[in-house]
Amino acid sequence: MKKLFLLAIILFSSCIYAQENKRYVYAEIIAIERLLEPKVSVSINYGQEISYWTYDKIQNEKGKTKSFNSVIDAVNYMAYYGWELHQTYVVKLSEDRHQTRWIMKKAYSSDEDYQTDIKSTFRNQNK
């Protein structure tokens, strides 16, 4: 009985340890409505340096800005690559304009190179 109890404790503690090694990386989705078009493009902020010369839109296989039917289409795209919806919030742009933003998260173990994976998710995918 003591051996069974000891084995249960070891298994339980190893499960807890495995969960502690998991960390999350976050990305923010901002929808940009296009003038005179029903589709939206999506700006992604995953902590990259943003300047005039950097590009923060999801690209298709040709390197062009990927269009989505809606923001939910973009969220589903992210879910396809293993991202989970974590939170949404609203930013007030002016008295009568608001913008909803979506925070996505993805779990990584401590030894994975998440920067390379993040960049490949948003650049030149064939989906």
Quick summary:
This protein has about 130 residues and is of the alpha+beta class. It has helices at about 1-20, 70-80, 115-120, and strands spanning about 20-35, 40-45, 65-70, 85-90, 100-110.
What does this 3D model show about the protein?
With 127 residues, the chain is of the alpha+beta class. The chain is built from three helices and five strands, in the order αβββαββα. It has a five-stranded antiparallel sheet with strand order 3-2-1-5-4. Strand 1 (22-33) and strand 2 (40-45) form a beta hairpin. The model has no long low-confidence stretch (mean pLDDT 75).
> What is the beta-strand fraction?
25-35%
Radius of gyration: 20 Å
Global morphology: elongated
Give the structural class: alpha+beta
* Proportion of helical residues: 25-40%
Beta strand count: 5
- Overall pLDDT metric: 75
Number of helices: 3
Strand count, sense and closure of the main sheet?
A: 5 strands, antiparallel
Uncertain stretches:
none
Number of domains: 1
Query: H/E element string?
Result: HEEEHEEH
